[in-house]
Design brief:
Shape: globular
Strand content: 15-25%
Function: Catalyzes the condensation of acetyl-CoA with acetoacetyl-CoA to form HMG-CoA.
Keywords: Acyltransferase, Transferase
Structural class: alpha/beta
CATH superfamily: Thiolase/Chalcone synthase
Radius of gyration: 21 Å
CATH topology: Peroxisomal Thiolase, Chain A, domain 1
Bound molecules: acetyl coenzyme *A
Largest sheet: 9 strands, mixed
Protein name: Hydroxymethylglutaryl-CoA synthase
Active site: 82, 116, 247
Number of strands: 16
Domain Hydroxymethylglutaryl-coenzyme A synthase C-terminal: 176-441
Distance between the termini: 39 Å
Number of helices: 16
């Protein structure tokens, strides 16, 4: 198949959010800590009416309706998520409920899990299927997203919730550059979910931040090596990437990730004119560089102009929703398509940096080869973000407490109001005496 990649994309996020300025006041932290320190404006969340299965059903059903795709056209469905409500039964099998009416049960693919990386792995699987001799000519769907919630404390404002649904096939406007990828994986305990009774992760915040940056270094170096070997580009650098989408735990981390690309370019070519003002960092050791705040600031400064051009347009969803874990990079892509015109995107290379704690990371890229404006119109991102309603921090906290208390409850009927949900949202009706879940749709 030719030009395999992303043919269409849509995103689902809940109708309610908490304002980060109000949350700063409520939490008694200094003004600006969440809004400037983390770079976040709003955080999306859900109550006990939604779980990962209902949210993925919402994303998929809305996608199929908006893009007028038939369930019988799908031959593969991959789910990337780390929001687990069952240790055996996959979210993919729950989504098969939506296929019933079409009579199409011949659908490959299953769930992929490792922190925020599962969506990228799912996308690779789907693209590789279409590109392989196992492909039967049908399309593939990739569903990637999470309910990102943290226990009370420093990490809580870096939560969020969102699910991306992506259609993969040949002749795609965003063609995956198959051989151009760099990956970095290693064993590290930075963010993990060993407590099966809780929805919350166990987090070593500072370690997760340096691990993210280390992964940027290694995955970027491996990607540049491919640009050199496969594309024949001598001295490849950021200038060979037109746009760069990052996994966004919060947007400040993306600013730092981008600055790290510039730092890597500097270490590869310190004599380059753009780096005249940062020569003093040439001899700082790489290990030391991870915690050197002066160096970090200097490279944020040096890369400011490029950041504004290549990455700022990718942050609309992340800043206003929060972390979507596996969905995050695809919300970044959706933001870029919504914020940049097709004239700006035409023929350009969009690179993605996907990071999942634990850790698994890749840099990979797409080439824009056909008009994406119909996709942007369908996602209608900024209008939909603006149509949400704000909830007070006190109510948000009460809802978080409710989720914590009722997580994994047996014979449970949720108490959250169905009226607050966007039209077309699936919701949990009840959990029966055998933990079987029943869903309705608004
Ligand atoms: N005005 C402006 N900036 C402020 C203010 C203020 N009033 N107060 C603090 N800041 C800045 C700090 O200087 C710091 O900036 P820096 O990062 O440039 O040094 C930033 O805000 C964060 O402040 P900290 O005190 O470092 O924050 P804290 O330790 O309380 O929590 C953390 C931050 C660790 C990211 C936490 O939110 C967390 O654990 N989140 C979950 C883990 C995570 O998201 N990791 C990222 C990669 S892994 C993943 O995707 C899950």
């Amino acid at each position: 198949a030719e030009n395999v990649g992303i043919r269409a994309i849509d995103v689902y996020f809940p109708s309610r959010y908490v304002d980060q300025t109000e949350l700063e006041q409520h939490d008694g932290v200094s003004a600006g800590k969440y809004t400037i320190g983390l770079g976040q404006s709003k955080m999306a969340f859900c109550d006990d009416r939604e779980d990962i299965s209902s949210a993925c059903m919402t994303a998929v059903q809305n996608f199929m309706e908006k893009y007028n795709v038939s369930y019988s056209d799908i031959g593969r469905l991959e789910v990337g998520t780390e929001t687990i409500i069952d240790k055996s039964k996959s979210t993919k099998t729950v989504l098969m409920k939506l296929f019933e009416e079409s009579g199409n049960f011949n659908v490959e693919g299953i769930d992929t899990t490792n922190a925020c990386y599962g969506g990228t792995s799912a996308l690779f699987n789907a693209c590789q299927w279409v590109d392989s001799s196992a492909w039967d000519g049908r399309l593939a769907l990739v569903v990637a997203g999470d309910i990102a919630v943290y226990s009370k404390g420093a990490a809580r404002p870096s939560g969020g919730m969102g699910i991306a649904c992506i259609l993969v096939g040949p002749n795609a406007p965003l063609a995956l550059e198959f051989p151009l990828r760099g990956t970095f994986m290693e064993h590290i305990y930075d963010f993990y979910k060993p407590d099966m009774s809780s929805e919350f992760p166990t987090v070593d915040g500072p370690l997760s931040v340096t691990s993210y940056v280390r992964a940027v270094d290694h995955a970027y170096a491996a990607y540049l090596e491919k640009l050199e070997k496969i594309e024949g580009i001598a001295n490849p650098s950021l200038s060979d990437l037109d746009y760069v989408v990052f996994h966004s735990p919060y947007t400040k981390q993306v600013v730092k990730g981008f600055a790290r690309l510039a730092y890597n370019d500097f270490m590869r070519s310190p004599e380059s004119a753009q780096f005249a003002d940062v020569q003093q960092f040439k001899d700082v050791g790489r290990e030391e560089s991870y915690t050197n705040k002066v160096l970090e600031k200097a490279f944020i400064n040096v890369s400011k102009g490029m950041f504004a051009q290549k990455t700022e347009p990718t942050l609309l969803a992340a800043r206003n929703i929060g972390n979507m874990y596996t969905g995050s990079v695809f919300f970044g892509l959706a933001s870029l398509l919504s914020q940049a015109s097709f004239d700006q995107l035409d023929g350009k290379r969009i690179a993605l940096f996907s990071y999942g704690s634990g850790c698994a990371a890749s840099v990979y890229s797409f080439r824009v080869r056909a008009d994406t404006s119909a996709i942007a119109q369908t996602i209608d991102l900024s209008t939909r973000l603006d149509s949400r309603s704000k909830v007070s921090p006190a109510e948000f906290e009460a809802i978080m407490d409710l989720r914590e208390k009722t997580h994994n409850a047996l014979e449970y009927e949720p108490t959250g109001s169905v009226d607050t949900l966007f039209p077309g949202t699936f919701y949990l009706q009840k959990v029966d005496s055998m933990w079987r879940r029943a869903y309705g749709r608004t």
